[in-house]
Amino acid sequence: MEKTIYKKILEAQKKIGAIKKGKTNPFFKSKYADINTYIDEVKPILNEVGLIILQPLTIKDGKVAIKTIIIDIDSGEEVGGIVKLPENPDPQKMGAIITYFRRYSIQSLLFLQAEDDDANSVSGEDVVVEYGEKECPICKKRHTGQYPKCLECWKSGKEPAKIKKIVNEEVEPF
User: Fold this and answer.
1) Same domain, 76 and 161
2) Structural domain span for residue 123
3) Who has the most CB within 10 Å: 20, 33, 39, 109?
4) In this structure, are 90 and 156 located in the same domain?
């Protein structure tokens, strides 16, 4: 059977433009595209070319994960990926984490552009998105996540003398 899924993904990529960032993050005043924007932009085009997209929650290595799958309805072929999610006992925060990773999984899998609001030129400061372990500039404790401050300092509202702004979409530190 001839592989058609890649031809269909190419056809969809040609039709999908940059995803417009129409929502504003109230914490950082940055723009982002929410999951509904991605669904509204991507799903009709994928369906038009004969592809469907699914994002079931699953377990990988004992951790909750999102599996993003694109399926060719004619051939049954599929492409996809799995990303393990950071753990958070708060259901509302976990929901935000799931939504966050759903968006970026779609963007990554389809190799989509996101409209850039050029936060560097707007803020006049460096904009950094960081992951992995780092030192909190306030209390000097090591922590993980995309924020420069640890969760405790973030909750307390403490600020160092000079801190770089962070582009965040919609989740709190974890």
Assistant:
1) no
2) 119-166
3) 33
4) no
Contact (Cβ atoms closer than 8 angstroms) between residue 79 and residue 54: no
Model-wide pTM > 0.85: no
* Residue range 63-77, pLDDT digits in tens: 999 999 999 999 999
Same domain, 103 and 137: no
CA–CA–CA angle 65, 68, 131 (5° rounding): 55
Domain assignment present for 173: no
Of residues 168, 22, 27, 39, the one with CA closest to residue 105: 39
pLDDT mean for each 10 residues of the chain (174 residues): 87 90 78 90 96 97 96 96 94 93 93 59 40 71 69 74 48 46
And the tokens for 35?
Answer: 């999951």
Structure-token pair, residue 99: 């939504």
